[in-house]
Amino acid sequence: MKQENMSLSGGVAIKRLEDKHLAKAQALSSAVGWPRRQEDWSLVLRLGRSIAALDGDELLGTIIWWPFGDHYARLGMVIVAPAMRGRGLGRRLMDAALEEAGSRTVLLNATAEGLPLYEKLGFAPVGAVRQHQVANSTTVPEAMPQGSRLRPLIKADLHAITALDERMSGMPRAEMLTAIADVGQGLVLERDGEIAAWSLFRRFGRGNIIGPVGAREERFAKTVIAAWIASHGSEFLRIDVPVSAGLSPWLESRGLPGVGEVVTMARGPTPPVNTGGLQLYALANQALG
User: Fold this and answer.
1) What span, in angstroms and rounded, lies between the C-alpha atoms of 77 and 286?
2) DSSP 8-state assignment for residue 13
3) How many angstroms separate the CA atoms of 2 and 23, rounded?
């Protein structure tokens, strides 16, 4: 933002979203049906560039964008208080975030409600993400691929995993992955002396979220995901998967029904990927990608 305090009609101003606003941000997300904890807000706030719409001490809207290097960014947590919808506040928040992002390609996952605004701002569909979730389900682990072993992720793995992730996503996301690993757990599937799949897992929203998940083959991704389902089946689980990854039928068979879908959109050229067989099978969550 060129100005830290840009007044809007009715006394509403665009300012920085800060740690002191976390309780109000959590209340705002609850008001629109998003089950985010203050800890979830704290993580995304720490990683990104945040903007708030405030009327005095009242938080009326939020948006956060996350830079991934000099050429790419993701945008999310676009929330407008129900009483303020239809007044152009979402557009003003988007304009402020896009101005800050500059020439970067910006990606986001759009709900049906946000889709018309994003299209007006030059975003185009490039994919889709399906959310699967379940509470109190049980299942058995996936059969272990021959010659492989599953083990906990350790800090020394992060360098290799972030390099693999950059090939899959086309963006440098080391800071995000390290932050998620710091607050959660991870699994690594090794085969023939190399990482065949990896997954992170953390507390999030109503319970837990599985992701990101990266793998060299679909069967390896299923192995690490099934391990989390088997070990935490009595708890609430969520996983956000690219529709193109093709895991939804398998997740349904494992007791995690699909509960919604969003459109992945980009404003600018999408990141180039050099997968060599690698694929991102699950997101960190819909906002972070």
Assistant:
1) 9
2) E
3) 27
Q: Which residues contact 287 (CB under 8 A, 6 or more apart)?
A: 44, 64, 74, 76, 77, 109
The two beta strands, 105-110 and 194-204, are unpaired
pLDDT digits (tens, 9 = 90+) for 123-153: 999 999 999 999 876 666 778 888 899 999 9
pLDDT tens string 205-221: 999 999 999 999 999 99
Cα maximum dimension of the chain: 65
Angle between helices 22-31 and 38-47 (to 10 degrees): 110
Number of Cβ atoms within 10 Å of the Cβ of 159 = 11
Q: Is the pLDDT of residue 3 over 70?
A: no
What pLDDT, on the 0 to 100 scale, is given for residue 9?
Answer: 52
Q: Is 199 exposed, middle or buried (0-12, 13-18, 19+ CB in 10 A)?
A: buried
Task: Work out whether strand 237-242 and strand 207-215 pair parallel, antiparallel, or are unpaired.
Answer: parallel
How would residue 273 be classed by pLDDT, with cut points 50, 70 and 90? confident
116-127 b/e with 16+ CB inside 10 Å = b?
eebeeeebeeeb
